[in-house]
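Give me the fold.
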Amino acid sequence: MSLFKISGKSVEKMNSTKNIERKIQNLCENNLEEIFGVKFLRSEYPTTTGGRMDTLGIDFEGNPVIIEYKQVESENIITQGLFYLDWLIDHKGDFEQVLNKAGVEMEVSWDSPRVILVAKSYSKYDTYAVNQFSGNIELWKYMIYDDEVLHIERINLAKDEKEKAIRHKSRVTYQTYEIDHHLAGKPENIVNLYYLVRDEILKLDENISEKIKKLYIAYTLDKNFCEFVVQKNGLRAYININKDILEDPKDISEDVSYKGHWGSGCTSLKIEKEEDIPYAMELIKQSYEKNL
């Protein structure tokens, strides 16, 4: 993809920076939360097999995250990433120690550990392999322009390829949940309220994904921008935007960044009836736009 710098009424094509493979790991590790929504834990983490994981982190849902960077075209980081994933599953206690040493107080979830692969480009064999393994393997492509602009994007698999993909047969068991897991036993008016809010959120962008987690329902692009806990008397929403920059003239939101709670959003609000939806969506939309 070509990028152009705007200067008045003219544009100037930006040039891709050469020989920056070694820089990308430092850039990502210094900005993991901004780029991937992941807390940094450790760089070059050694395994008992002699290999080293490039970056080890944990996302805001408590899932362990392994990040590997493809330095040369011939390097097969897909196989390497899967090998490290299996190793990590066998050494959960080691991950807990890394978490404690980093001073991060989070409950670890082993339902969906992630492998993020970062490279300038991928071959058709790479994407085919990910289609077959599926699981939580993510391909991210990057380019640096003029040493000042980083373009990084996730490569999305085609819908039919996702449906054909089979799970990677490792010791990882990916737990899945259905929406009834959250709606069962709730009053009819709350169930209807949830579906009304859900429809409004999905109207924001056709690329929004809905993830049904054990403890909450998440709406995400590259990272979550809104999560819901369905309660008997309403919907508790968590949005991924700081309260101090949120435009909330009615002041219905609460800063929960210092409180333990389900979901990754740092600001909370309650939706109790249909009349609350329009204003609540104004706040949710701000979180969506911030996380584009």
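The first helix runs from residue 21 to 30.
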